[in-house]
Amino acid sequence: MLEIVIGAVFLAAFLITLAVHKTITRGQAEVEQRVTRVVGSRIPSIREQELKVPLYIRAVKPVIKKYTGLLTRSMPAEKEADLGAKIERAGISDKIAPRELFVLKYAAAAGFTFLFWLLGGAMAKSITQTALIACAGLALGWYFPDLYLNSKGSERKREIEKGLPDVLDLLTVSVEAGLGFDSALIKVTEKSKGVLSDEFRTMLQEIKMGKSRVDALRDLSKRADVDDLSTFTGSIILADQLGISIGNVLRLQSEQMRQKHRQRSEEMAMKTPIKIIFPLVFFIFPAIFIVLLGPALIQMSDTIF
To answer: Residues near 214 by Cβ (< 8 Å), separated by ≥ 6?
Structure first.
């Protein structure tokens, strides 16, 4: 119980300090914005440039790199490749490497174990219960980075599927207007924003660095791991190899993507009634029964007893 009180006091003190800091710096930020409008932007100092870098890059990543070699000596190559694929699908390959993620899993497992051990010591009645709670924290900490990567990858996949039809429409119009495929991709990256635009921008950079278009498209499909995008890249590669008009292929792919998107929306709409059954049965119906039948049951109990 004492550990929980100490933790609550620490959390309250941290939130109060953060609120005071936000209040103080808010006025300074408004003054700096007014000065910037009148005088113009100034060149930030070296310290300001360093502080703009995320805290993870400045503080956490150097510590992880320090222990990477020590903790990843026995890391299998298959495990490293699997973690690398998950990182690419999550879109954070520029922030963390597979070996660094492996070290982060160790740190998360140790941190969650210690936290759950403290909670178990405050709540459990025996050392066995405390050890079981600590083991649950160990498992949660070890698999938490994987859960985060899977969630990030699924969110990124949904965003790509949602934005692909619009991007294909813009790409089709650009190609039919007379632009080449690469030039049309440049226009798409300039006019649109999002995950898919960033992936196309990365592909164009790879082509500028000397990679062939076919290899760049295959790497794009492998990196995104989206079925619709894989179908699109495969069609472009096939059209390029067979000499088929890319404009016709793009228009056909755009229509198919629109149809798939419509079918996916209809499927989600048809699943909605089934998903509503569970909250209706377990939450809404009991409350309705209590409101409707409660007074009658009370009257019957008064009459009988």
So the answer is: 237, 240, 241
C-alpha 262, offset from chain centre: 24
Give whole-number Cα distances, 92 to 60, 228, 247, in Å: 15, 22, 33
Task: Dig out the tokens for 208 from the structure.
Answer: 């500028």
Instruction: Locate 92 and state its tokens.
Output: 């954070």
* Beta carbons within 10 angstroms of residue 179's beta carbon: 15
CB-based contacts of 229-237 (< 8 A; 24+ apart in sequence): 229/160, 229/164, 229/196, 231/256, 232/164, 232/168, 232/257, 236/181
* Helix, strand, coil percentages in the chain from 3-state DSSP, rounded to 5: 85, 0, 15
Q: What is the pLDDT of residues 207-248, one digit of tens each?
A: 888 888 888 888 888 888 888 888 888 888 888 888 888 888
The structural domains of the chain, ordered by start, are 158-262 (1.20.81)
Angstrom CA distances, 80 to 138, 151, 220, 240, stand at: 21, 19, 20, 34
**pLDDT per residue over 150-184, tens digit each?**
888 888 888 888 888 888 888 888 888 888 888 88
Q: Could you give the CA distance from residue 7 to residue 169 in angstroms, rounded to a whole number?
A: 54
In this structure, how many other beta carbons lie within 10 angstroms of the beta carbon of residue 235? 18
How far apart are the C-alpha atoms of 57 and 100, rounded to whole Å? 12
